Every structure is written in C-alpha cells, then in structure tokens.
Known about the structure:
Elements: E1 24-26, E2 31-33, H1 49-53, H2 69-83
Antiparallel strand pairs: 1-2
Organism: Uliginosibacterium sediminicola
Domain 4Fe-4S ferredoxin-type: 1-29, 31-64
Keywords: 4Fe-4S, Iron, Iron-sulfur, Metal-binding
Amino acid sequence: MALMITDECINCDVCEPECPNEAISQGAEIYEIDPNKCTECVGHYDEPQCQQVCPVDCIPLNPDVVEDKDQLMKKYYKLTEAKA
C-alpha cells in the first residue's frame, strides 16, 4: 500500500525531505503523498521514513492503494530506473 497524509497534518515540513522517492509535496492545505511514487520506502529503508519523523502520527496506509511488498519493489525499480 502507498501511504497517505491525513488532515491532522500540522505542515511541520519534516516528512518531505525524508522521502527518497520525492513522493511528498505541499498540497493546497496539507502535505500530500503521490501514490504513484510511494513505495513505503521499500528498496530504500526497512521502514517508511516519513512515518518515523512525523510528530503527530498522521501518515497511515492508504486503503485506496493496496499493494504488496513485491508490487512496491517493482515500483521502486521502475522509479529508480527513471532517475538513472
């Protein structure tokens, strides 16, 4: 699954620079996660870095984007190929 940011976000700016896939950006009111770029840090880290640094715990799994670890790894490979 990709992650999402809930409306409990306080716009503290700590999650955006932690995302290795550049999936987090400032939205109209709060930060947003692009599900096409979010791999839950699979391929980069053992745990999602945005969740680790979020002071208000507002980054749960996105129930609308269901992916298993294999799918997340394939997305990681596709994203890193595009950057190379």
